[in-house]
């Protein structure tokens, strides 16, 4: 199972606040992501500044990690959000080919496309990962309208993952 997370507004943040502030923000994003993903049995596989590719052996754990990540990004510390920008996420599950210390394949591509249409703070998933997970206590699956995604021949069913307990 694959989770891709992308910081929304990172380029604007960099332009407005400078490279050092953006570097600190990217470091905070990496740290929060690495910690939460590891707690759910996953691995942060690739980090490219404002986006992260994470891999899990379990669809349920990938979903739980996505929800926990959104929670951690929104937590407040000393009156300030732990992470000042929204993060969109996409999840899919399927076969992938090990390549140069990472993976390549259709499941990663679909997770990336779902991530690209996710709004800040939103988690979008494929039918495949929801089918594998079946039921995740504390999480609801809300079908959205089918989407035409770049590079894919047919529209894709999109499912929003929503925690039953509201996020901060």
List keywords for this structure.
two-stranded antiparallel ribbon, 168 residues, seven-stranded mixed beta sheet, 5 helices, alpha+beta
Can you walk me through this structure?
It is a single chain. The chain contains five helices and eleven strands. It starts with a strand and ends in a 5-residue tail after the last strand. The chain is of the alpha+beta class.
Secondary structure elements and pairings:
Layout: E1 2-7, H1 10-17, H2 19-39, E2 43-48, E3 51-55, H3 59-74, E4 76-77, E5 80-81, E6 87-92, E7 97-99, E8 102-104, H4 106-117, E9 123-125, H5 127-133, E10 139-147, E11 156-163
Parallel strand pairs: 6-9
Antiparallel strand pairs: 1-3, 1-6, 2-3, 4-5, 7-8, 9-11, 10-11
Helix pairs in contact: 1-2, 2-3
Strand content: 25-35%
Alpha carbon gap, first and last residue: 26 Å
Structural class: alpha+beta
Helical residue percent band: 25-40%
Task: Give the structure's gist in a few sentences.
This protein is an alpha+beta fold. Helices cover about 40% and strands about 30% of the residues. The chain has helices at about 10-15, 20-40, 60-75, 105-115, 125-135; strands at about 1-5, 45-50, 50-55, 75, 80, 85-90, 95-100, 100-105, 125, 140-145, 155-165.
């Amino acid at each position: 199972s694959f989770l891709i997370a992308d910081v929304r507004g990172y380029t604007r943040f960099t332009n407005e606040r400078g490279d050092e502030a953006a570097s600190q923000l990217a470091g905070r994003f990496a740290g929060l992501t690495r910690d939460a993903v590891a707690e759910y049995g996953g691995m942060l596989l690739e980090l490219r500044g404002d986006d992260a590719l994470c891999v899990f052996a379990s669809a349920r754990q990938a979903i739980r990690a996505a929800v926990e990540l959104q929670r951690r990004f929104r937590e407040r510390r000393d009156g300030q959000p732990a992470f000042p920008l929204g993060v969109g996420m996409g999840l899919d599950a399927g076969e992938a080919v090990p390549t140069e210390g990472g993976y390549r394949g259709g499941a990663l591509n679909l997770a990336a496309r779902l991530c690209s249409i996710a709004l800040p703070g939103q988690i979008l998933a494929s039918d495949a990962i929801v089918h594998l997970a079946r039921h995740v206590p504390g999480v609801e699956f809300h079908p959205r309208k089918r989407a035409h995604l770049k590079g894919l021949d047919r529209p894709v069913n999109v499912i929003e993952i929503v925690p039953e307990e509201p996020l901060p």
